[in-house]
Design a protein that fits this description.
It is built from seven helices and 20 strands. It has 443 residues and is α+β, with helices and mostly antiparallel strands. A hairpin with a 4-residue loop joins β5 and β6.
Length: 443
């Protein structure tokens, strides 16, 4: 049986997959019209000829975009490599800026005003001061200097131990103690005074006192090294307390030196003891909040005694340093009140070492309650700069704003702000990254 084509058979064309390259918004109809137009032109054999079938549609489509009349600059695909390099370059810039921010530092050089002020006035120091007086206290220390003199000469020596005590009284009248007044220690050891003294009446409910040298009633070293409280059998209303150890008692053989040699040693010891060294020694013993003007220091008379040591004779010079201690802060506030009113707000008293105190009655003791003094000389004032508060006012501010702010502070003469790295123009927000270098300039 013959089958008719078109009736029972369906001829299927092979399916060819096509790929459309969307480089331009060109419709298929426009594309076919251009292809048909190029066929009608019947170009020479050298010209391009195209057949548009389903089989070679993909090839012809690709060839069309390479026709000579196609404009190459109608559309260009961005180069992926170029965009990548731009991203890398931008990231590097951000990284450099970030690292620079982490290591940013601010260094500020500031020159502040310094000025000398002169003073010449009178005032009163008191142990219980009023508003117009300054508080003072008595500072007292005992010191010794010694030299050992080698000796081989010995002899029998019997000596009495001696020491200094302070006797206190709460009586409303003066009492005189004659030479040989007995004092008894808590251990029962007896001593007597070697000079007559008078103790004044009690003042403002405070006991009065007087110092005196006492001597053991017997010779021997058993009376040495005593620091104790004493009673006075002849004056039971009085009491006494040691100011120094009892020393010098001896019985038996000991090394000796001749008087000429002893005087030479004593002269040498006196030369070592001067007021400047005594002031410094006393200053090292007092609380930090006090200071002692050199003109308000007394050095007592020097006493000498000898001690036996294995090498020979030890010559000891003993003395007492007494000074008027003035509260440092109170005195600085007193001086600040003497500054011109326009400068009190920002100037602080810095150095008072060149101020001289002179006593109007030229005497003081541990019982002194008030001291009229003359104050003269010069002191140095410096502009105040608060290193704690000012940095808080400049964090994260621009460099030029910081310069304006610092220059506006009273007492600032010169200021210069340096930021690192050099491209940074803002002060860091961490106080640890801000440093100051402060100098002073006389004005």
């Amino acid at each position: 049986m013959q089958k008719k084509v078109g009736q029972d058979m369906v001829i299927k064309k092979p399916q060819v997959s096509t790929r459309v390259i969307r480089r331009q918004a060109v419709s298929e109809q426009s594309f076919q019209q251009k292809a048909q137009s190029s066929q009608k032109e019947k170009k020479s054999p050298q010209s391009h000829q195209y057949e548009y079938t389903n089989r070679n549609q993909q090839t012809n489509t690709r060839n069309y975009y390479s026709l000579p009349h196609q404009e190459k600059n109608e559309y260009k695909v961005p180069v992926k490599g170029g965009i990548l390099w731009l991203l890398i370059f931008g990231s590097l810039i951000i990284l450099v800026i970030t690292l620079g921010t982490l290591f940013v530092q601010a260094h500020i050089d500031i020159t502040l005003e310094q000025k000398e002020y002169s003073i010449n006035t009178q005032m009163v120091l008191a142990t219980e001061p009023t508003e117009e007086q300054l508080l003072f206290k008595i500072g007292e220390v005992k010191n010794e200097q010694s030299i050992i003199v080698p000796s081989t000469q010995k002899q029998v020596v019997n000596t009495f131990a001696q020491g200094k005590v302070r006797i206190f009284s709460k009586e409303q009248k003066s009492i005189t103690l004659p030479i040989g007044t007995m004092l008894v220690s808590s251990e029962g050891k007896k001593f007597t005074t070697i000079s007559a003294v008078t103790i004044t009446e009690m003042h403002k409910q405070l006991p009065s006192s007087v110092d005196v040298i006492i001597q053991a009633e017997q010779t021997g070293d058993t009376y040495n090294g005593l620091l104790d409280d004493f009673t006075l059998p002849q004056f039971p209303q009085l009491s006494a307390r040691s100011l120094s150890e009892t020393i010098g008692g001896n019985d038996g053989d000991q090394f000796v030196i001749d008087n000429t040699h002893l005087l030479e040693v004593e002269t040498s010891l006196r030369s070592k003891i001067n007021k400047e060294q005594s002031v410094q020694f006393l200053m090292n013993q007092i609380p930090e909040e006090y200071y002692i003007p050199e003109s308000l220091v007394n050095v007592s008379d020097i006493t000498f005694h000898t001690e036996n040591v294995s090498e020979g004779v030890k010559v000891v010079a003993s003395y007492t340093i007494t000074g008027i201690m003035i509260n440092r802060y109170d005195f600085q506030m007193f001086l600040k009140e003497t500054l011109p009113e326009t400068e009190r707000a920002y100037m602080e008293v810095y150095d008072v070492s060149n101020i001289v105190f002179s006593l109007r009655n030229n005497v003081f003791s541990v019982d002194t309650k008030t001291l009229p003094v003359n104050i003269s000389g010069v002191f140095i004032g410096r502009a105040d700069f608060d290193k704690d508060k000012i940095p808080l006012s400049i964090v994260q501010k621009k460099k030029r704003d910081v310069q304006v702010f610092l220059s506006s502070i009273p007492g600032v003469v010169i200021t210069n702000t340096t930021l690192t790295p050099s491209w940074v123009q803002v002060v860091p927000n961490k106080l640890s990254k801000i440093s100051f270098q402060i100098k002073y300039q006389n004005k």
